Amino acid sequence: MRIPALFALTAALVWTSSSLGQMLLTGSGSAGGSAAPPSGSCSQSTAFLGRAGSIDTAHHNAYDAFICNGVTDGWWSKMDAFYLFGAQTSSQAVLNLVQSSFGITSTVMPAFVADVGAVLDATTTYMNTNFVPSTAGGHYLSGSASFGVCKIPTGGGNSAEGVYDGSIVTQMFWAQSGGGTVDVFVNNIGGATVTVPTAIHLWTMSRTTSTLMTFYQDGSALTPTDTSSATTLPSKALYLGARNNNGSPLWFDGSTLYAAFLGGGLTATDVGNIHTRLHAYTGTLGTAQC
Predict the structure, then answer these.
(1) pTM for the full model?
(2) What's the average pLDDT block by block, 10 residues per block, for the chain (290 residues)?
(3) Which of 106, 180, 238, 251 is deepest in the core (most CB within 10 A)?
(4) b vs e for 205-227, b when ≥16 Cβ sit within 10 Å of the residue's Cβ?
């Protein structure tokens, strides 16, 4: 009778010992958990981290530095939505860092690679920001608006990010099959055509007046600018990885998207600071794409 009892006691001790060792090695469980508490160095960071769920220390610190440095720079207060697709998990990748509204959804979601981004297939995948400029009620206005993406413009075909509601356009249309150009529009049907390299950069459209929209590669303004007048705000949601063509996705993208944002008009200094902070965020996680 003592042998089974001794066996059970021995098994229990082995299980306890191995489980404790695993917790100490992996940081799982209560013996050595490495998950950082959901608090940040500024209230904006704390609010996001509270929505992000379980997150490790490296990503906690990277998010905290990105958000709080943006607050200090001043551009964070102009944002309605900011997405960092190179996240720890796919559930965190679709979150809007700025607020609980305008999270990413899709009927055909791209694959998310941890610490890299959203990998699009040029055929069916896209992301709906659920941000409708005409009703969002934020910083994005007719004469003061910005839209940015970090990506490598893909060669060999046309692709787009943005929206066309049947009359008004906000989009980047990448005409790679036409020789590496991008047609950029913010709240109008005028736009400008800019020659761009096929390389990874932060691409930003910023309308700062009703008659001036500037397109940036990282922190540098490109020419020509768009001096055609802004009209009204698009009444459909902006898409990433395709254009929302009055309710349906069109011109699917085959690149990897690392980040994207929407908000009010940005100065050249704002755009340069966003690029600096993005580069630091991705570099901290070992993949300095933007």
Answers:
(1) 0.86
(2) 40 35 34 57 97 95 98 98 96 98 97 93 96 97 97 76 96 76 91 86 96 96 94 97 96 93 98 96 82
(3) 238
(4) bbbbebebbbbbbbbeebeeebe
Task: Judge: domain 73-284, CATH 3.10.129.10.
Answer: no
CB neighbours of residue 156 within 10 Å: 10
AA letter at 265: G
Cα–chain center distance at 11: 49
Q: Where are the domains of the chain?
A: 1-33, 73-284
What stretch of H or E contains 243?
strand 243-245
Amino acid at 169: V
CA–CA separation, 187 and 56 (whole Å)? 40
Q: CB–CB of 98/80 below 8 Å?
A: yes
Distance CA 141, CA 166 (A): 19
